[in-house]
Structures are given as structure tokens and as C-alpha cells.
């Protein structure tokens, strides 16, 4: 059982990889195949991990194994630690994308994936078939932890914010967008093509990442509404940008979303895209990374690839 901090030299770091795969697969045989060891070796590793943590980790049930509460708590930690270790040992003076087996982790919003995910994955598959992308979904609240998070990932795609003014943080602009309103074609409460602020304030809203208690507002949409002087009646809060259009379709609700996202779904969902009143801020999406990765050839290739994917986006 864990009784205190363990000295790194006394730990078998191979157990980290086995812990990650056991938690991912929740199956000893599949975890063994993923790591490339025999099933008895994986079972022995699980026994050692159970002794170390003083916990079952994988709990046998009727339908197979489930994670214990401790294993669920360890899941994100072991992903971060393994990813950081892999990047550490992959760092070098040479990078060959055609032969590399490296994994890159990017923190992105689902909006970013909708806009440029297909092109980014296509470029990576063509130029570096063995490279893996881990696209972690960003929560708006995660931005407050950027000083710690940026050390544990390869990069983050997000608009500029005051909390990003940190020593060692680097960025490059990827693309621009603008805010638009979306309503259902059959919205009974709003017929105008350019609604007034008063009209918007009277409607029920779908609001992504909206924190009604936070001030100053951290979520981009909440900040825009504050600039408009609107305190919305939020009918639906959702932790996703891509979910917003579906929650507006067929209702009298309204939402403020990015034009590039709106354009991809409006015809299919029967939505009208309306000009925003007031003076909304432009949306500037940037790729952020820590200066520790500045000289890493693999990271330079990643930054170039992300930038090229953004350059190929059609105009909104």
C-alpha cells in the first residue's frame, strides 16, 4: 500500500505503461496485447500494482472488469504522466515524420475539431502515417490552469485571454472567425434578419460553457453577452459548441456561435444565420505552446502542420 512519496529510482516505470493500458482496456488480455507482453506477465503486473496502491484497481463484475474509484481517479493522471514521458524520450535533434511513432497531444475545443480537424488529420496521415494525435477536449474552466497544463501537452488551440500572458508561452495565429446568431427557421418569436439587443434579451438561450455566477466571464460567449449588456434567460447550458445548433433547431431558442461552425450545420438542421447586433469581438484562434518545445524538430513539424491545416480552411 502507498504510504508516502516513492523515490523514482525505486519504481519500476514499466508499470506506468501497464497501468495505463489496464485502465484503458479494463481487460488483462487486451492490455497485454497492447503492451506486447504475455497474459501471465500482465496479470503479474496487475498484482504488483494492486499491492502498491492497496486497491483492486480492476474489479470483476458480471460483464467484465470495472474501474475501482481509485483507478478512475488515476486514469487522467497516468495518461498525463505517460504522455509527458513519451515526449521527453522522443525529443532529439532529428525528426523523420515518415518513420516516427510519436504521439502528440493537443488541447482543443470541439468547435476547433469541427472547423479544421478533418484537414489536420488528413495532413498527419499523409505525411506521418505512424504519428498519433491525441485531441483532448478543452473545458472553458481549464483555461485557468493553463500555467500547469501547457507543460503537460504539446499545444492548445484557443483565442487569446489575459490568463495566457505567461512567461514562456508562445503562440501563432491560425484562423479568424466571427460571432453570428442562429435560430430555427420556424422560430415564432424572431423574424428579423438582424435582431436588436432587446429582442435577443427576450428570447430563451442555448449557452455553451456559460457560468452565470462567474465574473468577469471566462467563456467567450458569456463575455460577448456581457459586452452587449444582455443578461440572458439561459434555457439550456451545455459543455459543447457542436451541440448548440441541435439544441436550437426546431425551437424558439437562440444562440450565439462561430460562423464557420454555423455554416456547416445550418442547412441540415433548418437554421437561419443572423447578423449580430452590437459590436462583437472578432474570434482569433491561436496555437499555444511552451517555449521548452521551441527547438524540438518534432514539435516544429507539429506546429507547421497545424498551421498548414488552418491555412487550407475556406473563407467563412
From TrEMBL:
PANTHER family: HTH-TYPE TRANSCRIPTIONAL REGULATOR LEUO-RELATED, TRANSCRIPTIONAL REGULATORY PROTEIN. It holds the Pfam family LysR_substrate. It comes from Saccharomonospora amisosensis. This is DNA-binding transcriptional LysR family regulator. GO terms for molecular function: DNA binding; DNA-binding transcription factor activity. Keywords: DNA-binding, Transcription, Transcription regulation. It comes from the Bacteria. Coiled coil: none annotated. Residues 11-68 form the HTH lysR-type domain. Belongs to the LysR transcriptional regulatory family. InterPro entries: LysR-type_TF, LysR_HTH_N, LysR_subst-bd, WH-like_DNA-bd_sf, WH_DNA-bd_sf, YidZ_PBP2. The lineage of its organism: Bacteria, Bacillati, Actinomycetota, Actinomycetes, Pseudonocardiales.
Amino acid at each position: 500500500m502507498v504510504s508516502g512519496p516513492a523515490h523514482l529510482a525505486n519504481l519500476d516505470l514499466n508499470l506506468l505503461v501497464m497501468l495505463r493500458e489496464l485502465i484503458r482496456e479494463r481487460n488483462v488480455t487486451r492490455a497485454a496485447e497492447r503492451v506486447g507482453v504475455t497474459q501471465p506477465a500482465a496479470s503479474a503486473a496487475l498484482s504488483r500494482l494492486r499491492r502498491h496502491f492497496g486497491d483492486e484497481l480492476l474489479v470483476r463484475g458480471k460483464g467484465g472488469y470495472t474501474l475501482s474509484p481509485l483507478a478512475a481517479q488515476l486514469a487522467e493522471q497516468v495518461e498525463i504522466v505517460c504522455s509527458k514521458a513519451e515526449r521527453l524520450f522522443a525529443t532529439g535533434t532529428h525528426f523523420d515524420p515518415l518513420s516516427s511513432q510519436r504521439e502528440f497531444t493537443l488541447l482543443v475545443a470541439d468547435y476547433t475539431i469541427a472547423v479544421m480537424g478533418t484537414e489536420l488529420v488528413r495532413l498527419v496521415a499523409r505525411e506521418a502515417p505512424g504519428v498519433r494525435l491525441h485531441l483532448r477536449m478543452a473545458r472553458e474552466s481549464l483555461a485557468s490552469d493553463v500555467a500547469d497544463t501547457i507543460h503537460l501537452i504539446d499545444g492548445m488551440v484557443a483565442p487569446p485571454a489575459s490568463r495566457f500572458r505567461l512567461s514562456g508561452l508562445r503562440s501563432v495565429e491560425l484562423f479568424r472567425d466571427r460571432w453570428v446568431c442562429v435560430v430555427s427557421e420556424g422560430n415564432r418569436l424572431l423574424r428579423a434578419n438582424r435582431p436588436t439587443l432587446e429582442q435577443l434579451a427576450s428570447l430563451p438561450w442555448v449557452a455553451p460553457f456559460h457560468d452565470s455566477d462567474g465574473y468577469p466571464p471566462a467563456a467567450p460567449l458569456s463575455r460577448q453577452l456581457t459586452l452587449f449588456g444582455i443578461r440572458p434567460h439561459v434555457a439550456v447550458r451545455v459543455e459543447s459548441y457542436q451541440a448548440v445548433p441541435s439544441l436550437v433547431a426546431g425551437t424558439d431558442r437562440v444562440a450565439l456561435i462561430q460562423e464557420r461552425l454555423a455554416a456547416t450545420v445550418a442547412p441540415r438542421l433548418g437554421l437561419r444565420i443572423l447578423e449580430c447586433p452590437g459590436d462583437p469581438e472578432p474570434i482569433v484562434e491561436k496555437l499555444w505552446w511552451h517555449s521548452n518545445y521551441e527547438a524540438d524538430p518534432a514539435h516544429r513539424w507539429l506546429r507547421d502542420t497545424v498551421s498548414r491545416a488552418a491555412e487550407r480552411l475556406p473563407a467563412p
